[in-house]
Design brief:
The protein is of the alpha+beta class. It has a 32-stranded mixed beta sheet. It is built from 14 helices and 32 strands. Strand 23 and strand 24 form a beta hairpin. Among the domains are: 1-133 and 303-324 and 331-363, no CATH class; 153-166 and 178-282 and 697-712, no CATH class.
């Protein structure tokens, strides 16, 4: 008897925690045949010994005493399941004790649920069909935007491009050495299919380097390349290679020899990485088309069913299918098969819902459905209930009330084409929103107020829309602690007003926001934001003890939503440490007139200009050009310049970029160089001239591959 008690006690200690509170229902659907089978097999094994019979007797007595306490039984079933799956119990008798206990619990739960379920099969099927129809109709009505996005995404990521590409990189620096390199892709064909890509091209490459402390290199290469990126794997085929290695070290000769050998075999070098593959699978799962199809398939079966009917009211619970779908979400993201809820997991899921409250559905006139929730009253919660009314196309009404007494309350009230009201009320937060909706379900009248009391921030906002006029005001206070009195006091505050109007289509036509900041009765901040049609204006001025700044941003959008006319002015001044003077630390003056860009940017250190940039360019539909000339001041020039020559103190950088994507072109010109005095220490030029044809493409992974490790492991890095 002591041994029996010891084993039973050990098992219950392993399953400790069954009395912890949960939030989910007891109604469940399990595989009755499997439960009976495991019950009979485990009982048969235990009945072979007197000790086993005593185990059965102990378990039966415990379950009989708790057969109506479904919360404990559900929790215990799940704990047993975890313990069995953990393989921590090696003793065969102990394992059969666990299996018998689990099956006995599940059989008892089945009987309890059968008694609770008071609904005929035809009624259950009726409500399930209604729910599936509602699920799919609401989804199809709301999926239009996502389908449009999906189509645009697929159109933009499926194309074939033909063109030429060239990059030149030259380095000539005293401390580093000399490098001259060139890469050309002639008559390339680039394909893209969603996140997969392929590049075929004639290639010419050369590199000549004399880096200090390294062996000299002088190589010329030509041939054909075929580069493929598929499902996170990378493939590279080099063929018809002609490599002239004029100057290379022994290690590089070995690598070149290996590459030539693989090229002659016409094999793709494959690079595979688990993390890259998982990342690619995850990115592909975000494809709108895949999201739409997965969601549509998930909604093709009922996520909710009924377990009881009283008059016109059906009491609802999630289906086992819904539990499976919730569990399978992480797997679906990575393209794996969906997971399945065990009986214990499903029971706990339902138990938590049951403890939260009851869900119900009512069939109304004109084919409408009302789905509601009545929460169980708990300590401090007086009301927690609401409902949603649907037709086959949309949400018609929403009403939700939550009242936690001294802890606050919340109300949501919506009626299609009529109103939307929302309210939160607690000691520190008070929010109220009331609006009138027109026949297009658009807001035509609105009032909004928000107050938040806390430390170190207090806010008060009011906003209204009436007769197409917008009015409002706001105040934000920042508090500080008064160490002498121990009280909280105002540090500074920002106050402002809002006014504007809407047009005939209920879109904002004009909006003006004016604000100011006050600290110790002195204004330290002043600004405004003005929006009128396609024109935007922002002005801000600060005046504090440490900083002074002026900012102006003004632009007008053209028909292509581009800011082809506008300006940006920024001036920031910092107070000197020893004097009361304010010295400029940043100055920006950038203008765009009819798409022509001109401007300057300067950064100061004391009286010296340490960064002086000139900007010129052009902005138009699918075209952009920007030329930048940057001169560094003496301090930065000496810091970044390794030259020992006194005439090389001036450091200058030119950075120019030009993009042309008109008429399906994909043209890029990029130039960057660095001048150290009169000497060009660095130069890079990239040029691409291409033409895209947007069409459906297919990219296949090659089969004749060799792992990259076989190629590069012989090379001593």
């Amino acid at each position: 008897m002591k041994k029996i008690n010891k084993i039973i006690a050990t098992l219950f200690i392993c399953l400790i925690g069954i009395y912890s509170p949960k939030i989910f229902a007891t109604n469940n659907v399990t595989n009755n045949g499997n439960i009976i089978k495991e019950h009979n097999l485990s009982k048969s094994y235990l009945n072979k010994t007197n000790l086993g019979k005593k185990y059965i007797n102990k378990i039966d007595n415990f379950i009989e005493k708790n057969k109506y306490n479904t919360k404990i039984l559900n929790k215990l079933s799940k704990r047993i399941e975890k313990l069995i799956l953990s393989n921590k119990i090696k003793d065969k008798t102990a394992k059969n004790v666990l299996i018998y206990m689990r099956s006995k619990i599940n059989l008892v739960l089945l009987e309890v649920n059968k008694k609770e379920e008071k609904i005929e099969d035809k009624d259950k099927k009726y409500i399930e069909d209604k729910i599936v129809n509602l699920q799919l109709n609401l989804f199809e009505k709301g999926v239009g935007v996502l389908e449009k996005l999906s189509k645009e995404f697929e159109n933009l990521t499926n194309y074939e491009e033909k063109g030429d590409f060239e990059i030149n990189l030259d380095i000539n620096q005293e401390q580093l050495g000399v490098v001259k390199s060139n890469l050309k892709l002639n008559n390339y064909i680039a394909k893209n299919s969603l996140l997969d890509s392929q590049l075929k091209s004639l290639v010419e490459a050369s590199i000549k380097s004399s880096i200090k402390g390294e062996d000299e290199i002088d190589i010329n290469l030509s041939g054909l390349i075929d580069y493929i990126s598929k499902d996170g794997n990378l493939y590279l085929l080099l063929s018809k290679l002609d490599i002239k290695d004029k100057k290379v070290n022994d290690d590089l000769k070995i690598l070149i020899s290996k590459i030539k050998e693989i090229a002659n075999k016409n094999k793709y070098i494959k690079y595979s990485n688990d993390e890259t593959q998982e990342a690619m699978i995850f990115l592909k799962s975000l494809n709108p088309s895949m999201i739409i199809n997965n969601t549509r398939n998930s909604l093709s079966e009922p996520l909710i069913t009924a377990y009881k009917k009283e008059g016109n009211r059906y009491y609802l619970k999630p289906t086992k299918y819904a539990c499976d779908k919730i569990k399978s979400i992480p797997n679906m993201i990575y393209g794996l098969n969906g997971g399945k809820c065990s009986d214990g997991e499903y029971n706990e899921f339902l138990t938590e819902l049951d403890e939260a409250g009851i869900f119900y559905a009512e069939i109304l006139k004109n084919n409408k459905i009302k789905i509601g929730f009545v929460g169980n009253k708990m300590l401090g919660i007086n009301t927690n209930e609401g409902y949603i009314i649907f037709d086959n196309e949309k949400v018609l009404e929403v009403n939700y009330k939550f009242d936690a007494g001294m802890f606050g309350s919340m109300l949501l009230d919506y009626k299609h084409n009529n109103h939307l009201n929302f309210n939160i009320n607690s000691d520190n937060t008070k929010l109220n929103y009331e609006s009138t909706l027109n026949k297009k379900n658009e807001c035509t009248e609105m009032s909004f107020s928000f107050k938040e009391k806390g430390y170190p921030f207090i806010s008060d906002v009011k906003l209204s829309l009436e007769n197409k006029k917008i009015n409002g005001k706001f105040e934000f206070k920042f508090l500080k602690h008064n160490w002498e009195t121990g009280e909280k006091m105002e540090k500074n505050k920002i106050i402002g007003t809002i006014d504007g109007k809407t047009n005939y289509d209920n879109k904002i036509e004009k909006l003006n926001i004016n604000y100011s900041g006050v600290e110790d009765s002195k204004e330290f901040l002043n600004g405004k934001i003005n929006i009128s049609g396609s024109t935007f204006n922002f002005e801000n001025k600060t005046d504090s003890e440490e900083f002074k700044s002026n900012t102006l941003l003004n632009f007008k959008l053209d028909k292509n939503k581009l800011p082809t006319n506008g300006k940006l002015l920024i001036s920031i001044k910092e107070k000197e440490e020893t004097y009361n003077n304010f010295n400029e630390i940043l100055f920006v003056n950038l203008k765009v007139i009819d798409g022509k860009i001109n401007g300057k940017t300067k950064v100061f250190e004391g009286k010296e200009i340490i960064f002086d940039a000139t900007h010129k360019g052009e902005l138009a539909y699918k075209k952009f050009r920007l030329d930048n000339n940057i001169k560094f001041g003496k301090y930065l020039s000496q810091t970044l310049n390794y030259s020992k020559q006194p005439n090389n103190n001036q450091l200058e950088v030119n950075y120019n970029i030009s993009i042309d994507q008109t008429y399906n072109k994909n043209n890029l010109d990029l130039f960057m160089n660095m001048l150290m005095g009169e000497k060009e220490a660095f130069k890079m030029k990239i040029k691409n001239t291409g033409k895209r044809e947007f069409k459906k493409t297919e990219i296949k992974a090659p089969k004749n591959t060799i792992d990259y490790k076989e190629v590069f492991d012989t090379y001593d890095y």
